[in-house]
Amino acid sequence: MTAFLAIGVGYLVGQINIFGFSLGVGAVLFVGLAIGAFAPKAQIIGPIGLTGLIMFLYGIGILYGRQFFEGMFGVGQKYNLLALVACLAGLAVALVLGHIFGIKIGHTLGLYAGSMTSTATLQAALDVMKNKDPSIGYSIAYPFGVIGPILCIYFMTRIVKPKFPAKAQRFHMGEISIGQAFAGKRLDVLTGNALTDIQVTMVRKDGRNLVPAPDTVLSAGDALMVIAESEEAIASAAAQLGKLEPGKLASDRADLDYIRVFVGKANVVGVPLASLPMPAGYPTHLLHVRRYDADLVPSPGLMLEFGDRVGVLTPPDRKEEIRRHFGDTVKAAAEFSYVSLGLGMVLGVLLGLIPIPIPGIGIVTLGIGGGPLIVALILGKLRRTGPLLWTMPLPANIVLRNFGLAMFLATVGVNAGQPFVRTVAESGFTMLFIGVAVLLTTVAIVLLVGHYVLRIPYDDLVGVASGATGNPAILVYSTKMAPTERPDIGYAMIFPSMTLVKVIAAQIVGLLATSGAGG
């Protein structure tokens, strides 16, 4: 009852918006602290909080696996190095100021975790310190850990005044009438020359619409329906082949009709379109993919996901077979394999238990904060292993992550309520100051060095800053300041790796501190 009371009231408080800022799921932590302070016997015992943390980290890893591994190459290496320097500098500031002001090491590690709004780092600190001190520091630093980066990005944007091109549509369609110069040419010859940037989806020949085949021989007056990611590519192809002449193909549905269906069967998910099985015995062609709010050109390497809506060209009398083939149910947006979810989480927990000896320091582990995240990143990159589909639709992923994070924050808050009140009364302002200093150090290094020294594009830069600090609310604000897809990509490249860095760093510092105290 205590856990769900904290979640319900916390989400209600988290919706309160003050000058565009709200705590969101983070408010669950503070409602939990209030409940724990007023009802100290209302402790949440057992592994419910840890289970929630595993759910959250697993969802993050599955979602960002592909982007994370792509970020290990090219500019991603530079971005990760910048974030690494910033995060370690923030930890150094926390340790130095904590030592100067006489703050206990457990509180200091919690301040660092809270400034970075990193639940995985908090759990690592709790594991190594074996007391509730990190929870207290985390709670004090958390609010500015959310609002601080948002303020920094706001002022940086006002100073830099970046310009971004209008968001371009990535799916365009056109109909090209073939001129006399290309009469007698095979379609595969054209696709290797003039049509390299576009895809042919339908051919009109002798007054009939046909599914394109490589050996189709074109005649003057034949027409091609083509798709591309830019209008310029279609215009260029039309200038070479003949002219744009809409209306010949789309209006005739006697031989081929267009149908849009939802992807709801596992056997068509996670398979490159080049290898995607299609019904045999009659011509079909996949023309279009809509994923959530984006229209995608169906390239050979694109993999379908549950909940995608695909446009298929098919004979009119075969529509029902196409629906059965793909599943065609909107419920697929919430479907995923509980088999793969369970196996993935088990592998993650087991990996987190493996001891890693570090000479002169002791034994560290990836723990609950690192093991599930690493396994999920790998599985998110693989997407499918034989019959096992590791990925899940975005709506299901969001529910899994948010519910897991809410359970973890409720547990941490309720269990730390009483000591939180005592600590705030004794040294709350000092600890708040340290948390602010840690956060500003981290964000300032990313934004200032990234912009003025490394010359990182601004939309990439705010994504790196969001990933280094961690909270999704920061990413949401970043996409408002830089309305492109790049902040999301930067966040995906940085957040997982910096989470692992913070988890390991917190354990090393805690081990050094406890061994020194023991000595």
Describe the structure concisely for a colleague.
With 519 residues, the protein is α+β, with helices and mostly antiparallel strands. Helix content is 57%, strand content 11%.
Overview of the structural elements:
The chain has 519 residues and is of the alpha+beta class. The mean pLDDT is 82. Strand 12 (384-385) and strand 13 (388-389) form a beta hairpin. The two termini are 43 Å apart. It contains 17 helices and 13 strands. The radius of gyration is 27 Å and the shape is elongated. The strands form four sheets. A five-stranded antiparallel β-sheet has the order 3-2-4-1-5, with helices on one face. Strands 6-9-7-8 form a four-stranded antiparallel β-sheet, with helices on one face. The chain has a two-stranded antiparallel ribbon with strand order 10-11.
Largest sheet: 5 strands, antiparallel
Low-confidence stretches: none
Radius of gyration: 27 Å
Please report the distance between the alpha carbons of the first and last residues: 43 Å
Strand order of the largest sheet: 3-2-4-1-5
In total, how many beta strands? 13
The shape, in one word, is elongated
The helix content is 55-70%
> Roughly what is the average pLDDT, rounded to an integer?
82
H and E string: HHHHHHHEHEEEHEEEEEHHEEHEEHHHHH
Helical run tally: 17
Q: How much of the sequence is in beta strands?
A: 5-15%
- Structural class category: alpha+beta
SSE layout:
Blueprint: H1 2-14, H2 27-38, H3 48-70, H4 75-100, H5 105-115, H6 119-129, H7 133-160, E1 172-178, H8 187-191, E2 199-205, E3 208-210, E4 223-228, H9 231-241, E5 242-244, E6 257-262, E7 285-291, E8 294-296, E9 309-314, H10 319-326, H11 338-353, E10 356-358, E11 362-364, H12 367-382, E12 384-385, E13 388-389, H13 394-415, H14 417-453, H15 458-469, H16 472-481, H17 486-518
Antiparallel strand pairs: 1-4, 1-5, 2-3, 2-4, 6-9, 7-8, 7-9, 10-11, 12-13
Helix pairs in contact: 1-2, 1-13, 2-13, 2-14, 3-12, 3-13, 3-17, 4-5, 4-14, 4-15, 4-17, 5-6, 5-7, 5-14, 5-17, 6-7, 6-12, 6-17, 7-14, 7-15, 7-16, 11-12, 12-17, 14-15, 15-16, 15-17
